[in-house]
Design goal:
The complex is a heterotrimer of chains A (176), B (1002) and C (99). Chain A is an alpha+beta fold. Chain A is built from four helices and eleven strands; from the N terminus they run βββαβββαββαβββα. In chain A, a hairpin with a 2-residue loop joins strand 9 (129-134) and strand 10 (137-145). The chains are: A alpha+beta (176), B alpha+beta (1002), C alpha+beta (99). Chains in contact: A-B, A-C, B-C.
Chain lengths: 176, 1002, 99
């Protein structure tokens, strides 16, 4: 997939390639089963993330996780969870196509996100993720570094969110 | 150098002259000037006409509370960049700025509307209420046009504002509003303690009072040097942000403050892409309000004559802008502060004619200073009139002895500088619903009980003088840091030459003339006089809230910043009560008028709201579709060919689909994955239908009720596994249904092991309908047999379609053989294009939502929200068959036995066929049984759906009608706008293929 | 805009992440068919409409997705506390003592 980039000195807005993405729901008591199936110890506190290679897991609700993996691994992961379903009740739903991902990098990343995010972004831990809002859209906000974020947004809301980010990124270059 | 500019005074940049226009005349000022200061430097006081009487008005303040000098500005020379009611005292000049006066015709100096001023006695308080009452026939034709013509201040711009407005959220520890000495001290204190501080000021530079008081020294430095040092220190702290031209316009719950930052209105050359304004939504842990105090006018006959202004404003124009507002001023005051203004004016070369003070005594030090400058002083005097119309030429003053007003004499002058005391600025504090307490001694309201984490410092809580402000600001900063759990060092400041003082406030000044004839203005902007307020009290207004609305005092765009306290003082005098018993009107956001652009921010044009588009939307656009909004989505409505209107296009699309093949983008349908061992039990409890016996690979129409028994949503639900359902919802209902399901699951049935995930946007959904649907689809399907036998109506399978993983449904919302293909969203358009290409063999026809509606109506399928309106039960809609009667319970079941739901004569959904088959009824039209009955007729229902049916060659309609099921074959009537009534026969809602034979295509 | 503490996320967040969901502690009857018309009417429609401390439901809809309960003063609009769904309504005196 091509990756259009709007890049300025202080911040860049990038449409990121797609990944295999899952919504996992499971009772916290059964989490070890899910960790084994996914091959990564899933975090237990809302907002936390865990990463290993191209797999990542973010706890986004008391019994809810967002999982990322390489696209090629999608079917294998579905099968791994299917194999334990009979013994351990859970729900694994493929949402690889539900969202689009926007990368926001650079020293002005926080300022750029603050045009639409009402939360205090500085409190978001690096490596963590949070479901929140950007303007009128619900988004998943993932913090990869001090000044690097990813915004996952439902496909039909993407033009709105991406459009606002582009306008605001231009504002930042004007410096006003 | 212009005539009134003083060498060596002010902060404007003398090296940079700036030309601008006012009423098409070019004026020169300097960089740093406002329109007001630059016009004053040119000797122009007259800047506007008043609202009601069109009286000539001059500028009275140097700041944002200005009620008179409201001008129209045209920025950037551009179309749509006109702004009315801009304060000339706040608008900075730049090369090319065009400004104009308002509320005048034909010119500012000669205005025909001023006839109203001669009719003053007619336009008293309550004029509108009394005058426009009768005759009633005049309301629309005479009074309303009159009021509309007279109403409004300034001209509203008619073109679209091309500018860009921005917004951001901001989180900080301490927000300091106001950058006078107390605000600066607070910011320094909190900044040095390491707090994240934001300091804002509405002016173009920080300093507040310090900018007008250069003679003070702080810590041995002249005020302006100290100020420069303080600013530099703040700027060195990475934890401190300073924002100028930034107004704290509203104070909301839990320390959320709205700031409007003006970014480009002072620039001759605006950088490309720069926003004009930015709304900051600040969440501060602690707030320091250091907004200072507002000087009060004095109320006397002719007090609005141009050339009369606040003494403090004159001092600001002199010291900050280097402008003498007059060469022969008289000072009229009841507060020491104006004496200092007089001294500054005298020291700058003005011949101060006199200081007139209403008080009997003032300090000897002030008298000595006045004497030293040769200024005459009059104590215990009143002012009773003025001379001059476009500019004051004399002030009429009289001694007051033992409450008696003595004989008058005139003080000839070119300006009158007035000070009736100072009002602490508590607007933002009032937004928080903090209580105010009345300070009996100072006759002012001060902050009382606080509802927020807020600290009020300096003149805003009645303190006076720079030393007091610095000390109080430091304390506010310390307190804020302490509340944050930190510790701040307490700085002390040595202040020399501080001009402290006291004063009194009063009602309208006593006069030897008839008070009833005096034009003694309280509210300049709304032309309210002392007489109006007394009249309102005489006519029975007891509360200040009533006085305000009856007289409009304080209701102008300045929200009574100058007038409220004088109005209150006069009203309480007229009522014979103390001010706190009369009350104070509430200040509400915004603090100063705020542009719509600032509120709208990015939400204009294509970002006005979210427009959701499906993966196939671009294909529809390329193929000329017309779109309609459905919830937040835009959906292809119909696909007109050259020369077709909607009617023709829809007729063609319907025919093509029924005869061969139609293709439809159904991606907007809500989709929910219901997964887990208790999925069946959950579905049984949520939906009316029974789910236990639905086999894997089968699908069923599902009906969802609210607990009160009315239809909420519907959709086809497929069973993918024992423990997995693919639920579809209406387009608009997707989020609502998921929320409702989560609600029951989390709060009523937390024991159920089942989970819900929205997959609306995971899948693109393409519907193929028509007798050739299977033929076009079959070549693409791998993994399953889709013959009628192997894959009957109401089936679902996972398979591969055109190589894409798919959930394939055989269902029909048209009555034709139908399939719905779900593929991962990214493949939606590609699959569509493949089906489109293959479908050419069958004259495949893309259709939109309108054709979908017609086809389903022909079959009598309901649209939730169109044929139902939140008061329709399954029985009412004729779909009682969808209720699992043997189920012990489901959401809404108990309500189906409610007395009102089993009562006879409920409105029921029926078909309507007009007698004239060509007549298409209007959706929403009311229905009556007897069109000859007297009006108002008894309406027994309304038309919910109505279309031209190309397949039937006639119109069809659905309607909800009282006792409709018992009226089959009756003729009812639908009255129309032109007085006729259309007769129509009640029928079944299934108009087309009632036996369902068309589904059975081999 | 209010700040609301989500008892599941244990975080205080802007109101924009939350949605109001009506009065709290109104349990759906285990067997609605046993209720009289009047009892069912009361369950469906009758609410307390308090002036003062109101127990109400909110959903962290743009966050963890959980429904939870809150005590809020309808006069001042202030949240006094929030607690998880299924927990008993906190006693006001205990709350005040804790402050």
């Amino acid at each position: 997939m091509n990756a259009p980039v709007t890049s300025f000195d202080t911040v860049s807005v990038t449409v990121l390639p797609s990944v295999a993405r899952f919504n996992l729901r499971i009772a916290p008591a059964d989490l070890s089963v899910a960790s084994a199936a996914f091959g990564l110890t899933l975090p237990t506190k809302i907002g936390q993330g865990a990463q290993s290679g191209d797999r990542a897991a973010y706890c986004i609700g008391p019994d809810e996780w967002l999982l990322h993996a390489a696209e090629a691994d999608q079917q294998a992961i579905v099968s791994a969870f299917a194999a334990v379903r009979a013994d351990t009740a859970h729900s694994l739903v493929v949402i690889s196509d539900r969202e689009m991902t926007i990368g926001i990098d650079g020293p002005d990343a926080l300022a750029l996100l603050s045009v639409g995010c009402p939360i205090d972004l500085s409190r978001l831990p690096i490596g963590g993720a949070k479901r929140t809002v950007f303007d009128y859209a619900q988004v998943m906000l993932i913090r990869d570094a001090e000044d690097a974020f990813r915004v996952e947004v439902w496909r039909s809301y993407f033009p709105h969110v991406h459009g606002l980010l582009e306008i605001a990124a231009r504002e930042l270059t004007v410096g006003l | 150098m212009t005539e009134y500019r003083v060498e060596g005074r002010g902060r404007v940049n003398r090296a940079k002259p700036v030309k601008f226009t006012f009423d098409d005349k070019t004026y020169e000022g300097f960089e740093g000037d406002t329109v007001a200061s630059a016009l004053l430097a040119n000797g122009e006081h007259l800047m506007g006409r008043s609202f009601k009487y069109h009286r000539p008005r001059g500028v009275v303040t140097a700041s944002s509370e200005e009620p008179n000098a409201l001008i129209g500005t045209t920025r950037g020379g551009g179309k749509g960049r006109f702004e009315p009611n801009t304060r000339a005292t706040m608008q900075e000049i730049y090369a090319g700025l065009k400004t104009e006066s308002q509320n005048k015709w034909p010119s500012l100096k000669f205005d025909l509307g001023a006839i109203n001023d001669r009719l003053y006695m007619l336009f008293s308080a309550g004029f509108y209420y009394k005058t426009f009452m009768w005759p009633r026939s005049f309301w629309d034709s005479v009074y309303e046009p009159f009021i509309r013509k007279a109403a409004g201040l300034g001209k509203a711009p008619t073109e679209v504002d091309p500018d860009h407005y921005a917004s951001r959220y901001l989180h900080c520890d301490v927000l300091v509003v106001g950058s006078g000495p107390s605000g600066i001290a607070a910011a320094l204190t909190a900044g040095r303690a390491g707090s994240k501080v934001v300091l804002v000021d509405e002016n173009s530079e920080m300093g507040g009072t310090l900018l007008s008081e250069p003679s003070v020294s702080i810590d041995g430095q002249p005020a302006w040097e100290w100020l420069e040092g303080a600013m530099a220190e703040l700027d060195r702290m990475p934890n401190v942000t300073r924002m100028t031209r930034t107004t704290a316009m509203g104070y909301y719950h839990q320390n959320m403050i709205g700031l409007v930052q003006k970014l480009t209105d002072h620039m001759a050359d605006v950088p490309e892409g720069a926003p004009r304004e930015r709304m900051w939504r600040v969440r501060a842990k602690e707030v320091v309000l250091a907004q200072g105090a507002i000087e009060r006018p004095m109320v006397f006959d002719g007090n609005d004559t141009p050339g009369i202004m606040m003494a403090g404003a004159a001092q600001t124009f002199l010291n900050r802008f280097g402008v003498l507002v007059g060469k022969k001023p008289v000072v009229l005051t009841s507060h020491d502060s104006a004496w200092y203004s007089a001294f500054d004016m005298a020291d700058a070369g003005a011949k101060v004619v006199a200081i007139v003070d209403t008080r009997e005594t003032v300090s000897q030090a002030l008298l000595d200073e006045a004497n030293a400058r040769g200024i005459k002083t009059y104590l215990s005097y009143t002012a009773t009139g003025t001379k001059g119309r476009l500019r004051v030429s004399a002030l009429r003053v009289n001694p007051v002895r033992n409450g008696k007003v003595g004989s008058a004499h005139l003080l000839f002058c070119d300006a009158v500088l007035v000070c009736g005391g100072w009002t602490p600025s508590l607007h933002l504090f009032s937004h928080t619903k903090g209580s105010l307490h009345w300070d009996e001694e100072a006759k002012v309201y001060l902050p009382g009980h606080k509802t927020e984490d807020v600290h009020i410092a300096g003149a805003g809580r009645g303190l006076w003088g720079i030393a007091a402000a610095l000390e109080d600001g430091t304390k506010a900063g310390t307190d804020a840091v302490k509340s944050l759990g930190g510790n701040a060092g307490v700085a002390t400041y040595e202040v020399a030459d501080d001009r402290t003082g006291t004063g009194i406030t009063q009602k309208e000044l006593p006069t030897d003339r008839s008070a009833g004839k005096a034009k003694a203005f309280v509210d300049f902007q709304n032309d309210v006089t002392a007489k109006d307020i007394r009249l309102a009290v005489r006519e029975g207004m007891k509360s200040i809230e009533h006085v305000k609305r009856y007289t409009t005092n304080g209701m102008a765009t300045d929200q009574g910043k100058l007038s409220n306290m004088n109005g209150l003082t006069i009203a309480s005098d007229a009522l014979g009560k103390e001010a706190p018993q009369v009350g104070l009107t509430t200040f509400r956001p915004p603090y100063t008028p705020t542009t719509f652009g600032a509120f709208a921010g990015y939400h204009k044009g294509k970002h006005f709201e979210v427009t959701r588009k499906t993966p196939i939307d671009s294909w529809a656009e390329e193929h000329g579709a017309e779109f309609e909004p459905v919830a937040l989505w835009r959906r292809a409505w119909y696909f007109p060919m050259a020369g077709e209107d909607m009617h023709k296009a829809v007729a063609r699309e319907c025919k093509a689909t029924r005869e061969s093949l139609g293709i439809f983008d159904a991606s907007t349908l809500g989709k929910i994955e219901v997964s887990g061992p208790d999925a069946t039990e959950f579905m049984n409890r949520m939906y009316t239908n029974p789910w236990t016996k639905l086999g894997v690979g089968r699908a069923r129409y599902g009906l969802l009720l609210g607990e009160e028994g009315f239809i909420r949503d519907d959709g086809v639900i497929g069973r993918m596994r024992d423990d997995l359902f693919h639920v579809t919802t209406t387009t608009g209902g997707a989020a609502r249904v998921l929320n409702m399901m989560e609600d029951y699951l989390q709060t009523e049935w937390p024991d159920l092991k089942v989970w819900l995930t929205s997959t609306t946007e995971e899948w693109a959904t393409i519907a193929l309908n028509g007798p050739n649907a299977r033929k076009v689809l079959a070549p693409f399907v791998e993994g399953i047999d889709i013959s009628d036998e192997a894959f009957p109506h109401m089936s679902v399978r996972e398979c591969t379609v055109a190589g894409f993983p798919s959930r394939l449904f055989r269902i029909s919302f048209t009555g034709e053989l139908g399939f719905e293909i779900n593929v991962p969203a990214r493949h939606g358009k590609e699959l569509w294009e493949k089906l489109w290409a293959e479908g050419q063999k069958y004259d495949i026809c893309p259709y939109g939502t309108e054709t979908m509606h017609v086809l389903r109506a022909e079959k009598g399928f309901i649209i939730v929200g169109q044929d139902t309106d939140g008061t329709v039960t399954p029985q009412d809609a004729g779909i009682g068959w969808a209720i699992g009667k043997k189920k012990p319970d489901f959401v809404g079941k108990r309500s189906l036995d409610r007395p009102d739901i089993v009562a006879p004569n409920r409105k029921q959904l029926v078909g309507l066929l007009t007698e004239d088959p060509k007549t298409v009824l209007t959706e929403g039209a009311q229905i009556v049984a007897d069109p000859k009955q007297a009006k108002p007729m008894k309406m027994i229902g309304h038309v919910t759906s109505s279309y031209w049916s190309e397949s039937l060659g006639r119109s069809i309609a659905m309607a909800v009608v009282e006792g409709g099921f018992d009226r089959m074959d009756d003729t009812l009537h639908i009255p129309t706008e032109n007085g006729d009534a259309v007769p129509a026969k009640v029928t079944s809602t299934v108009f087309y293929d009632p036996a369902g034979d068309r589904l059975k295509v081999e | 805009m209010l700040l609301i503490h989500c008892p599941y996320c244990d975080d205080t967040l802007p109101e924009l992440e939350f949605a109001y969901a009506g009065e709290a502690h109104i349990d759906r009857p285990a067997d609605p068919s046993k209720l009289t018309d009047e009892e069912w009417r009361d369950f469906l429609f009758i609410r307390t409409n308090v002036k003062g401390v109101h127990a109400e439901r909110w959903r962290h809809i743009n966050g963890c997705g959980r429904f939870f309960n809150a005590l809020r003063d309808t006069v001042s609009d202030r949240f006094l506390t929030t607690y998880k769904a299924g927990e008993a309504r906190p006693d006001m005196q205990t709350l005040e003592a804790a402050e």
